[in-house]
């Protein structure tokens, strides 16, 4: 049985998290904007928030990151990135299922945005009970998904 845990990110995780983003989402970023190392590093530095971000651990080793905003309207999954060496092992599924269950326990829905070119992630989110509700961003590059029922 694989042990999945979370630990708070620290400033010392900065470079690990940049390299994780590059490994996990770099191909998708490149499809939309092209991968410019300087631009992506500056983007990372603006967003890096060790007070909010958590490192996903698998059997004690760093395997990814997650950022969840627990707002009054319900949890918003701002980001989940699993290193390619750990993908396909159910880690992201388990964490997202837990978020869905927590949200439902509070009478809320989980919401997230995913890049439109990331079909693999969209398929995962659909399997976990989320559905597309909108496209936004320049040329609809982001897909908003939620567990909220059709109204």
From TrEMBL:
<dbReference type="InterPro" id="IPR050832">
    <property type="entry name" value="Bact_Acetyltransf"/>
</dbReference>
<keyword id="KW-0808">Transferase</keyword>
<dbReference type="InterPro" id="IPR016181">
    <property type="entry name" value="Acyl_CoA_acyltransferase"/>
</dbReference>
<dbReference type="InterPro" id="IPR000182">
    <property type="entry name" value="GNAT_dom"/>
</dbReference>
<feature type="domain" description="N-acetyltransferase">
    <location>
        <begin position="4"/>
        <end position="151"/>
    </location>
</feature>
<dbReference type="Pfam" id="PF00583">
    <property type="entry name" value="Acetyltransf_1"/>
</dbReference>
<keyword id="KW-0012">Acyltransferase</keyword>
<protein>
    <submittedName>
        <fullName>GNAT family N-acetyltransferase</fullName>
    </submittedName>
</protein>
């Amino acid at each position: 049985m694989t042990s999945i845990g979370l630990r708070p990110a620290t400033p010392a995780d900065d470079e690990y998290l940049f390299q994780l983003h590059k490994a996990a989402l770099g191909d998708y970023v490149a499809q939309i904007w092209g991968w410019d190392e300087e631009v992506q590093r500056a983007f990372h530095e603006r967003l890096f928030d060790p007070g909010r971000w958590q490192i996903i651990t698998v059997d004690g080793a760093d395997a990814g990151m997650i950022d969840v905003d627990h707002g009054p309207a319900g949890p918003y999954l701002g980001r989940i990135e699993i290193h390619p060496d750990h993908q396909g092992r159910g880690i992201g599924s388990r964490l997202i299922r837990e978020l869905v269950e927590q949200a439902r326990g509070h009478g809320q829905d989980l919401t997230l945005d995913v890049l439109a070119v990331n079909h693999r992630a969209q398929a995962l989110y659909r399997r976990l009970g989320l559905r597309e509700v909108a496209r936004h961003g320049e040329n609809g590059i982001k897909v908003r998904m939620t567990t909220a029922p059709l109204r």
